[in-house]
Amino acid sequence: MSNPVLPVLVDRIGAVATVTIDRPDRRNALDTATKVALREVLAEVGEDSTVRAVVLTGAGSAFCVGQDLAEHAEVLSTDAAKAFETVDEHYRPIVVALTTMPKPVVAAVNGACVGAGLGLALACDLRVFSSTAKFGTAFSAIGLTCDSGLSATLVRAVGQSRASELVLLGDAFGADQALAWGIGGTIVEPDDVLARAQQLAQRLAAGPTQAYAESKSLLAAAPSSTVGDALAAESAAQHRLGLTSDHQVAVNAFLAKQKPIFDGR
After folding, report:
1. Most buried residue, 1, 28, 131, 133, by most Cβ within 10 Å?
2. In order of start, what are the domains of the chain with their CATH numbers?
3. Model confidence over 109-141: pLDDT tens digits?
């Protein structure tokens, strides 16, 4: 009896987990099975304290082209309202998992990154882009609006005016434009994307994991925070981090003129 083909793969190298959307024949389009698997895998690696950094990528020549429209059309033809239950059942928990995971997540954008795929990339903390990667919002082209948190993350990355152009006009853009417009990342040759992303993740996995988690939380809250709110949140976070082993180790290492060795505690 053969094993079922899983649409999402997880590979561990030390404290780094690489999560791969594995539907290369469909350019990693997100059907229900893939969304369920991705939701479950991200929850698992997020809760696993032995994983201290995560890489998210796609198999083959694409990162992710968003919703699988063939499956969507089938559901739409039978029950149009049911077709959009996926927003709450899948896209919301997937993006929440990426943005609130108490460890850094690096997107290895190896190719086409469209629609919800762009939402996933922007939900990650850092990004490595293939020089040939193409991006687009795509929603207006099929008579829909944003999902996967894109209405928030795109505005934060490129600003309100540019986000309006990208969503309403839906024009495709390349890695150089993405970088110039504020979608932070590093551009490398196509064959180097995964290796560079994993190098970044390995560096992060050797860092102060709890400090990264606190920083993610502070930065996520920043757009809606007043300076007073930020100061209060920073104070609380610093008090928590001050009790960690990593902080004490780092202070002692600094005084001894040595490089600290963090264990994430």
Report:
1. 28
2. 8-205 (3.90.226.10), 209-255 (1.10.12)
3. 999 999 999 999 999 999 999 999 999 999 999
